[in-house]
Amino acid sequence: MSTDIKTIKQEIRYFLLINFGLIAFISIFLFISATKPNSSKLIHNFSVMFMYIPAFSVIVVLKKISKCEFTPNVEQFLSVFYTFTLVRIVTSIVYTFVLKSTFISSLIDTFISLYLVLLVLSKGSEFEVLNLSLAKNFKKIIFVVLIFFLLNIGRSYVGSILEGSSTADMNIDFLESIWAFIIQFCFGFNLFFGEEFGWRYFLQPKLQKLYGKRCGVLILGFIWGIWHLPLCFTLYNPQTPVYGVIHQVAFCMLLGIFFGYAYMKTENVWAPILIHLANNGIIMLGESFESAITIDGILIGFAVNAIFFLPFLFTKEYKSNNVEESPTDVG
After folding, report:
1. Is 146 within 8 Å of 262 (Cβ atoms)?
2. pLDDT tens profile 171-186
3. Is residue 213 within 8 Å of 321, Cβ to Cβ?
4. φ, ψ for residue 134 (rounded to 5)?
5. Buried b vs exposed e over 214-249: b needs ≥16 C-beta within 10 Å?
6. 256 near 206, Cβ under 8 Å?
7. What's the burial of 81, exposed, middle or buried (CB within 10 Å: 0-12/13-18/19+)?
8. Measured CA distances, 266 to 185, 262, 317, 326 (Å)
9. pTM of the entire predicted model
10. Neighbouring residues of 186: CB distance < 8 A, sequence distance ≥ 6
11. How far apart are CA 257 and CA 147, in angstroms?
12. ∠ Cα 307 312 318 (to 5°)
C-alpha cells in the first residue's frame, strides 16, 4: 500500500467515483426493472451483479491509475474478473428490455466462480500479492470464521428474546447453514471476492491510514452500508426504504467492525470473504426479502449487533492508531 497521503487520497477518490458512478448508472435500469410485472428475478439479478462492482473498481484503479503489474496468473485472474464484470453489466441491462429469464447470468456467475476459485487455490503462493493465498494464516482464518458462526448463534437467541419470540421458533438450522456455506463457496466465490477485495483489501487500510484504525473502519462501514441504498428501495425493504437504508448502514457499520478485525488479524482477504459468504447464507435461510422495517426493528437490530460486534473495536488489532504496512499490499 502506498504511504503517500496524496496518492492514497487519489486512489480512494477514483475508487469511490468508479464504484458509486457505476452503481448509480446501473440503478437506472434496476428501477426500471422494478416497475415491471414479476420483477423479482430481474431485481435479484441486479443485486448479484452489484457484488462485482467494488473489485472491478479496484482493478481499474490498480491497472489504469496506479499502473501495478503482477505475475501472469494474477493478471489472468484480474482480467477475467474485469471482463466478465462488463459482460454481467451488459446482460443485466439487456434483461431489463428484452429477456424474462436470467439463466445466462446464472451460468456466467457459476462458471466464473468455479474458474477463479480453482485458479486461486491451485496457484496460491502467487496470490499472496493480493492477500488471497488461503495458506497464509490458515488457522487464524478458521478461527475467525468459527467465531462468526458462534456470534450468529448468540445474535439469533438474543434477537428472539428482544423481539418477544420463542427461541424454539428460530428457523436457522445449523446443518442447513453449513450446506449453504459450502454451496456458496463453490458457486459464489466471485461475488464475495467482488465485495471484499474492494471493501477490506483496498479501502479499509487506506481509510485507516488516513483516519486511524477505529474511525477508518467505521467510515468504511458507512460507505458499505449506503452503497446498498438502491437495493433497499427495490429488494430489501421497498415498503419502508428510508428505514431500510438506516438499518443497512447501522448493520454494516457494526458488522464491518468484525470484518475489519478479521482482516487485520489474518492479513488475508479469505477471512472476510468466508465470513461474508457465511453471513449471506444465514440471512437467506433465516430472513425474507421485501420486509418492512420499523423503528423498533432498527433499534433491536442495532442493540443486538452492538452487543456482539462492538466489543471487537477494543481488541488489540484496533489498539494501535497506525496501520502496519504489509509487503503484500499494493496500490
Report:
1. no
2. 555 666 677 777 777 7
3. yes
4. -65, -25
5. bebbbbbbebbbebbbbbbbbbbbbebbebbbbbbb
6. no
7. buried
8. 19, 6, 10, 12
9. 0.92
10. 113, 114, 117
11. 14
12. 150
The Cα 49–Cα 33 span in angstroms is 14
Mind listing the pLDDT tens digit for each residue in 19-66?
Answer: 999 999 999 999 999 998 878 889 999 999 999 999 999 999 999 999
How deeply is 101 buried, as exposed, middle or buried, from its count of CB atoms within 10 A (0-12, 13-18, 19+)?
exposed
Taking only Cα atoms into account, the Rg of the chain, rounded to an integer number of angstroms, comes to: 19
Q: Which three cell numbers stand for residue 260?
A: 475489519
Residue pair 279/270 in contact by the 8 Å Cβ criterion: no
- Taking the CB of residue 119, how many other CB atoms lie within 10 A of it? 17
User: Taking a C-beta distance cutoff of 8 angstroms, is the pair 185, 134 a contact?
Assistant: no
Across 128-164, b (16+ Cβ under 10 Å) vs e yields bbbbbbbebbeeebeebbebbbebbeebbebbbeeee
Three-state SS for 288? coil
Query: Between the CA of residue 42 and those of 37, 63, 115, 195, 282, what are the distances in Å?
Result: 10, 31, 25, 20, 22
Instruction: Write the CA distances from 172 to 153, 255, 285, 315, integer angstroms.
Output: 9, 19, 6, 29
Max CA separation in the chain (angstroms) = 56
Cα 54 to Cα 154: distance, rounded to the nearest angstrom: 30
